């Protein structure tokens, strides 16, 4: 109905509500917040929330959700088609513990600025509520402040010259 080699058939009637419910239940079982799950999937919390709200997202997003939730690939398509998700093997990103405790994968570090440790440190700010856009704004703010600080300052003679020109106008 929906599943074609892991792709979503938009002509079929996918059950986005079922996928939303399954995604939320699994995330809560893993003890993940939306922000933590989104970070592990390398997506924004807004995108993760769209999945849990039953909205259609890109197929790559479903693959990332499957990875974070420890589902086999094509689990999202199976749920959209009326089936159930299946857990990945223990070699997947989420390992089943013998006592039933499941742990989420650690997000892999994203090297945005490998040649500049200061910029990378700013990017890696450990606040899970920050989106990539907010992190980039922090980096850009730092760069703007640095550019301003690197400019040669006007000496007092230059300031006097500027005042003279302004008063002449």
Automatic annotation (TrEMBL):
Domain of life: Bacteria
Stored Pfam families: HTH_31 (PF13560)
CDD domains, alphabetized: HTH_XRE
Annotated Basic and acidic residues bias: 93-105
Biased amino acid composition, Basic residues: 160-169
Region feature Disordered, mapped onto this chain: 82-120, 150-169
Matching Gene3D superfamilies: lambda repressor-like DNA-binding domains
Name this polypeptide is given: Helix-turn-helix domain-containing protein
Lineage, highest ranks first: Bacteria, Bacillati, Actinomycetota, Actinomycetes, Streptosporangiales
